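Recall that a protein's primary structure is simply its ordered list of amino acids. Everything else, from secondary elements to tertiary packing, is in principle encoded there. The following example makes that idea concrete.
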Amino acid sequence: MDLFKYPAPLWHVEDGGRYIGTGCYLITRDPEDGWVNLGTYRVMLQGKNQVGFYVSPGHHGYLHREKYFSKGKPCPVAIVLGGDPLLMITGSLEVPWGISEYHWAGGLRGGPYEVINDPITGLPIPAEAELVLIGYSYPGQKAPEGPFGEWTGYYASGSRQEPFIKVDAIYCRESPILLGVPPNRPPYEADRYRQYIKSAMLLNDMRRAGVPGVKGVWCHGVGGCRLLIAVAIEQMFAGHASQTGHLASQLPAGAYLGRLVVVTDDDIDVSDLEELMWAICTRCSPAVDLDIIHQAWSGPLDPLVSPDERAKGEFFNSRLIINATKPWAWRQQFPKPIGPDLEYRRKTREKWGYLLNK
């Protein structure tokens, strides 16, 4: 067994090693409830039969691993390197706790995935995979992992002692094709699809939470689809904008490592960054329209977590909630904006958009 014979580039000049896993996903099973998680976490080559893997605190793979470790047991892991990219994409999203990404992705593509139960770990691995590493992560055993250039655009997590996986078996096709999706300063390649899916997931979260009048959600790629979230609402009652902003920052699809949440009226295209900034500049009064949430969920990838906080394992951050809606009390008297409304612009693009593509 020699993992170094497979392609594993040095993706960024300051990376601490070669990362074989960027467009990959790791399969774990909850030792108590039995459900299977697929999570897209980075995987670093550390030896011929050893890989390091970093999972941010609070993510499902991290919680699975800690459940095994708390019982003094090794955590079984399967690493899938190449195959249907939909499973890798799904593994990078906030699929709810207790729901397997196999089921979520299967529903999206309209059919189940064929899997094989690995005889070593018992984990279900996709039959169409290109390369799969099978092994265990053991409690109390750690090795240096990182640094690695991450989706925030920084080497924020540095080099840390992290659990690793001893690889016991490799399943491989002849001449396997591995998928690489290395993070870069946002917006980067993965943000092209995540901004659509994460926005839809957060919209669903808000509707399930009972927030009325939500007309649009956009997780902006410039913030890695996490650091800048915008929500458009049809204002329906006093305090509606504040409720919307606070929930958008804490519901599952928006909770991890966020920073700014902007709430606008529904005449704003929240996916248009310039239009969003115009709403902030003209409808937000800093003295009354800004709220701050303290000690929210962050992690080692956050460049604003201080060295002292890192040393103590205190991975919190704050969230700024920006109310960029027309003031509720006199919204009907708010000055009328210049230019066509969203529906008129949509119809114009439908009719004349072909001219813009030439």
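The two ends are 53 Å apart (CA to CA). The chain has a mean pLDDT of 95.
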